[in-house]
C-alpha cells in the first residue's frame, strides 16, 4: 500500500520537476536573436487597428460550450453503439438516461435562446 503512494509521489515530483525545468532550459539553451518582427504582436498577419481588447458577446462562448458538450456526448455514445448487441439491458437504460440528459440540456439551451445567432 505504501509503495503505491510512493510511486504516485515520485511521479508527481517528476512531473512538477519537468514543468519547472523545461522553461529554464528553454531560456538557457534557446536561440536569442530578437528583432522588431519577432517582438511584434501577431494577429492573423494583419496590423491591429485601434484597441486590441474587444469585448465578445457571451453567446459565442455558450454556443462553443454546448458544441463541446455534445461533441463529448457523441464520443461517449459511439463505443456503446458499436457494442450494442453485446450489452445488458441496464446498460441500454443508462445510455438512454445519458442521451435524455443531453437532450434536456439542448432543449433548455434552445428555450433560453442560446442557439439563436443574432
Topology record:
Elements lengths: L1 H28 L6 H4 L18 H25 L6 H24 L6
Q: Which structural traits does this protein have?
A:
118 residues, mainly alpha, Methane Monooxygenase Hydroxylase, Chain G, domain 1, 4 helices, flat
Portion of residues in helices?
A: 55-70%
Helix count from the secondary structure assignment: 4
Look at the structure and give the CATH class: Mainly Alpha
Mean pLDDT: 84
How far do the termini sit from each other? 58 Å
User: Could you say what the CATH topology is called?
Assistant: Methane Monooxygenase Hydroxylase, Chain G, domain 1
Summarize the structure.
This protein is an all-alpha fold.
Task: Please characterize this protein's 3D structure.
- By secondary structure, the chain is mainly alpha-helical.
- It has a single domain (2-112), classed as Methane Monooxygenase Hydroxylase, Chain G, domain 1 (Up-down Bundle), CATH 1.20.58.
- The chain is 69% helix and 0% strand.
- The chain is built from four helices and no strands.
- The chain has helices spanning 2-29, 36-39, 58-82, 89-112.
- Helix 3 packs antiparallel against helix 4 (89-112).
- The radius of gyration is 24 Å and the shape is flat.
- The mean pLDDT is 84.
